[in-house]
Amino acid sequence: MSKFEVNILGCGSALPTSRHYPSSQVLNVKDKLFMIDAGEGAQQQFRRMGLKFNLLQHIFISHLHGDHCFGLPGLLSSLSMLGRTGELVIHAYGELENIIRPILDYFCRDMDYQVRINPISPRKNELIYEDRSVQVFTIPLKHGIPTCGFLFEEKKRDAHIIRDLIDFYQVPVKEIAKIKAGSDFVTPDGEIVPNNRLTTPAAEPKKYAYCSDTGYSEKIIPIIEGVDLLFHEATFMQEDLAKAKETFHSSAGQAAEIARKASVKKLLIGHYSARYEDIAPLLKEAQNVFPDTVAAYEGMCISV
Fold first, then answer.
1. Which residues contact 134 (CB under 8 A, 6 or more apart)?
2. Which of 77, 83, 122, 205 meets the CB 3.0–4.6 Å disulfide criterion with 154?
3. Is 41 helix (H, G, I), strand (E, B) or coil?
């Protein structure tokens, strides 16, 4: 099974605490690293978790609140000191260009690599990145400023050939790629060998949805439906729902309700308010609605 795992660098919210770092995650897809948000301390957490800076190619920023992007300047500077030369792409609301470029021009003017901002529209569900293994789509969210989540979806893989039957039917090498892609095989005598006799299905593509700061919104359900793992913010408990509505955040119970209605396989909650010294009650609240819920914590690595 190919690697597809989420590393939690930080799962706290805006106000710093000694218990949690601000929001930041790293998704590892076949040893290609994608950072999702970069709160303060992201680079220290990156090191603590044993992740390799040279494998980081893309950063996705959900929105321009400080607890999701204040870690960027230090990280970009450190990458320069580590000798990076390859381009780094940051996918974010276009306003980030006006924020980060003066910082780089002042503190990192001698960088040997390029930082490119790929401007995205947080208000649309659209494809913003793809390579041979994965596609990334935006998920419009409900927050006080333009904000989006991200859906990471593996591309469908070719079927696995059954070597013994390939040899039995003496299938030419040039035909194998077509068979992997779903074609039947026709022997020199005209016999049609069905594809399902020559192959076994590939594993279903994995899907991970990251929904950062957002009020309760059922509009995201069609986008995240059936994902293997959903991260959904759970800043507050239900007893503080008025505060959640005021600040465009969600309760743990609301996060679980979204997971239940979207029929996801597993829910991961985080972005905890500093008011809660113990996150166990938030986890219990979510599990009462959606039992297959786990609580994020710094240093966690969870397979999708």
1. 29, 32, 152, 153, 154, 155
2. 205
3. coil
The reply to whether 67 belongs to the active site is: yes
Tell me the pLDDT band of 178, cut-offs 50, 70 and 90: confident
- Catalytic site residue from 31, 37, 67, 131: 67
Q: At what angle do helices 72-81 and 96-107 cross, to 10 degrees?
A: 40
3-state DSSP call for residue 231? strand
- Backbone phi and psi for residue 179, each to the nearest 5 degrees, phi listed first: -65, -40
CA 151 – CA 227 distance, rounded (Å)? 9
Helix (H, G, I), strand (E, B) or coil at 153: strand
Q: What is the pTM of this model?
A: 0.91
d(CA 234, CA 216): 10
**128, 97 contact by CB (below 8 A):** no
Strand partners, 18: none
C-beta separation of 272 from 282 below 8 A: yes
Mapped onto helix, strand or coil, the DSSP state of residue 178 is helix
HSE of 123, CA atoms in CB hemisphere, 13 A: 4
Angle at 59 (CA atoms; ends 267, 301), nearest 5 degrees = 40
How far is the C-alpha of 39 from the C-alpha of 11, rounded, in Å?
A: 9
Q: Do 139 and 147 contact (CB within 8 A), yes or no?
A: no
